[in-house]
Amino acid sequence: MEVVDHLMGDKEQQLRVVSIHGFGGLGKTTLANEVYHELRGRFECHAFVYAGRNQHIRTTLLEMLSQVSDGQPAGLESMEEQQVIKQLRESLEKKRYLIVIDDICMPSVWKVIKCALRDGMHGSKIITTTRIHDVAKLCCNRPTDTIYPMGQLGEVDSKKLLSSRIFDLERKPPSDSDGFLNDISKICDGVPLAIAVMAGLLSRKFLELADWKKVEEYVMSGLKQYSMLQGIRKILYLSYSDLALPLKTCLLYLSIFPKYYEIKKGRLIWRWSAEGFIPAGEASAWKRGESYFNALINTRLIQPVFGHNDDQPVGCTVHGVILEFIASLSSKENFVTTDAELVLAAPRDAIRRLSLSSNQDDDILKSEADSMNLYQVRSLTLFRIAKWMEPHLIDFQLLRVLDLEDVEGLKDEHLAAGLGRLFLLKYLGLGGEGVTVLPKDVDELQHMETLDVRRTSVKNLSAANKLPKLASLLATDANVLPAEVDKMHELQEFSMVSIGDQNSLECLAKLAKLKRLRTLGVKWCFADDNGSTEAQRKSFVTSLGELGLSSSSGIPTFESLFLDAAGGTSSLDFLVKSWVPPRALQKFMMTSPNCYLSGVPANMALDTSSSITHLEIAIAQLGDEGLKVLGELPLLVFLKLRCLLTTENSLTITADKFRSLQVFSFECQDGGLGFVFGEGAMAQLRKLRLYFKAGEESRLQGVGHLSVSYLCQVHTTVYCAGVEILPSRMQRKPSQNCYPTTPRNPPWKSPSIRNHRTEG
Fold first, then answer.
1. Taking the mean position of all CA atoms in its chain, how far away is CA 325?
2. What's the CA dihedral at 296, 300, 302, 303 to 10 degrees?
3. Quick one: where's region Disordered (predicted)?
4. Which helix (DSSP H) or strand (DSSP E) does residue 74 occupy?
5. What's the distance, Cα to Cα, between the start and end of the chain in Å?
6. Structure confidence at residue 557 as a pLDDT band (50, 70, 90)
7. Where does residue 753 rank: exposed (0-12), middle (13-18), buried (19+ CB within 10 A)?
8. Integer angstrom CA distances of residue 422 from 373, 445, 448, 463, 751
9. At a CB cut-off of 8 Å and minimum separation 6, what does 123 contact?
10. Where would I find the beta strands (DSSP E) of 594-740?
11. Which of 283, 308, 395, 673 has the highest count of CB atoms within 10 angstroms of its CB?
């Protein structure tokens, strides 16, 4: 990679800067992100921060400090800009660092950031991205620094990218599509973002109309309608105008969040529901909201974010160019108001949705808050502590959504008064370790649907059973549970529930009988040495087996179980012989890093009707019987397997096992592999991730038997002892579309084998 060569091309120890320059949509951030994830393991500390147009420089510096520091610096929220700069210089002293500053839009921003970055002789590297050439020149003022210009794709590459995003093995390009694709490629002008959005539009219109000629007529007619617009904006308007009304509303709602902010899927869907964007129907609000989320992903107007090794999006981000487009539409329709608009724009008669980050001084916002009409605000989202909020909280009388999840400095006293008077509130998200208890008047919020306190210190959820409409209840380790949880008839997801005494076991038994419960997270907290009795373990197993059986429709609704064990003192091994998973269970995830079962639960694949599609499981040592059970799960598409010990004799994965598997991740604590891919094995596999120690690769046999038609992403991590293995790539073009990468989500190399250095 050329940028890597510029950064690491020689052994000089002085600071080196590479500035990636080009207009929006060319892929500057994506390139910087790939380089960052490839190189960060070679540096003592690293950071990736955003410094865009509406971002306050202090916020950028604070984010950088939190990423490069060993621990969270004390008093971070109260630091002034000069204090942050001083702290950063101290943190980076005598360290070799890699820092990426994304989207620098003004010379003054770089001048301030530069003051915080030590120019020592330790081989540190800085990557900047900018749309402005003068800024790129300012960043690169040494002879060893480099400006890396991002150019547009050529006609041939543009057409190839467009075709690869529309067609795959199942959907071949029509014989008469060549001329139209050439025309569209020229309209996209070699801009990857424009090509991606246009491909999303063409894909969904082709599915809808089933006639390529009709698709061509529709798109060309739409482009004529927006002929006055230039570049990517024309394509964005065409794609937006094609959306159904609910999807337009849901898309505009994303202007609440900052650029490249990772928006969690659950948070977004429950907020959409609270705002009334999801109409009532046969499907649940969650299912319908999830379909909206997936539809927006397919438009390419939002980018999916994937969890570690997962194949399903857990959230999304919005590209800066697209966010600017969405924000402009939102502002015109008075849909969302940001703090920048409060200060810079003309006063509005009504504010419906208010989003406040750290772009403006709190005194200015307090002055604005004192003068504006807060009565009609339906949604309030804060990304930092706001001193003016507490006295004004009771003014938000029509508030449906109060999202304070990113307010790290939030404390109990900030929520002491007025919350119970927000009678229409449906969504409450809290953050900050200083929040230790639920607000005392939370039980007055009778319309509450979502209560999320995962980013707080709240453990006692006993008041939640007084919220009759609660559908989502989320905490980190809830150890005091609602006594009358069996009366919470609307509850659909509850996580994480700590099971460590008789009361919590009884609560779990009641939870298992709820008719609408869809997702449950459970943490087993009985210690092995003095812990649970046989009766308590039996009660736990029985409750887990009964999840979803009480569905009012007669069709089990329970889908996902997340299972954890406390520290290294609790064992779940009693599940191996006795637990029978609920028949409707689709996702089973063991999330504890230190808990290993002695074997695969024998009842996991009792018959061919198992519904499990996603499985993360930790086994002490996998044997033939365990491999057989896993391989016979008929619908399994995702498997993350962790082991303690490698089998002495390699296990063979045959063609009759794992017939539906698309994603396979394997890691063994002793660094071994211990299996062989037989001929025709895992015929549907798309992604493979393996971890092993140097010398074990000789046991990695049969990879050539994997289907080259589907396999498009391979990632290996080799554990070495004091030996650096540089990244190597195996070039092969995938023949089927894979999920697109996102700026904050490290992409799988497609295709590549990446070897990382790990000190052992």
1. 22
2. 120
3. 733-760
4. none
5. 28
6. confident
7. middle
8. 16, 7, 10, 17, 52
9. 12, 13, 14, 96
10. 614-621, 638-645, 651-653, 663-668, 675-677, 687-693, 713-719
11. 673
51 neighbors 109 (Cβ within 8 angstroms): yes
Two structure tokens written together for 656: 């009759």
How does DSSP classify residue 701? B
The model's pLDDT over 180-238, given as tens digits with 9 standing for 90+, comes to: 889 999 999 999 999 999 999 999 998 888 888 899 999 999 888 888 788 899 999 99
Task: Please give the single-letter amino acid code of residue 3.
Answer: V
Q: How long is the chain?
A: 760
Tokens read off for 131: 């749309």
**Vertex 683 angle, CA 678 and 684, to 5°:** 145
pTM of the model: 0.88
Per the listing, tokens 């365990």 go with 626
Which residues does residue 432 pair with via DSSP β-bridges, in sequence order? 456
**103 phi-psi bin (left φ>0, alpha ψ -120 to 50, beta other):** left
- Which residue type occupies 36? Y
Question: Does the structure show a pLDDT above 60 at 749?
Answer: no
Q: Which segments of 371-506 are extended strands (E)?
A: 379-382, 401-404, 427-432, 450-456, 472-478, 493-499
CA separation for the pair 254, 231 (Å, rounded): 23
DSSP output for 157-189: HHHHHHHHHH--SSSPPPTT-HHHHHHHHHHHT
Provide the token pair at 527. Answer: 């210690």
Q: Tell which residue, 630, 697, 634, has the closest CA to residue 664.
A: 630
- 117 to 61, 120, 496, 505: CA distances (angstroms): 10, 9, 41, 53
Tens of pLDDT along 496-528?
A: 999 998 999 999 999 999 999 999 999 999 877
Residue 552 has pLDDT above 70, yes or no: no
Phi, psi of 609 (to 5 degrees): -95, 5
Confidence of residue 385 (pLDDT cuts 50, 70, 90): low
Beta-sheet pairing, 587-590 with 638-645: unpaired
Beta-bridge partners for 499: 524
Those residues with Cβ within 8 angstroms of residue 104's Cβ, 6 or more apart along the chain or in another chain: 51, 110, 113, 128, 129, 130, 132, 135, 139
pLDDT at 505: 94
- The four Cα atoms 506, 511, 515, 519 give a dihedral, to 10 degrees, of -160
Beta-strand relationship, 663-668 and 651-653: unpaired
Rg (CA), the chain: 27
Distance between CA 618 and CA 590 in Å, rounded? 7
Whose tokens are 């409750």? That residue is 543
Q: Which two tokens stand for residue 199?
A: 């491909």
Whether residue 375 contacts residue 395, with contact meaning beta carbons closer than 8 Å, is answered with: yes
Work out the pLDDT band at 529, boundaries 50, 70, 90. low
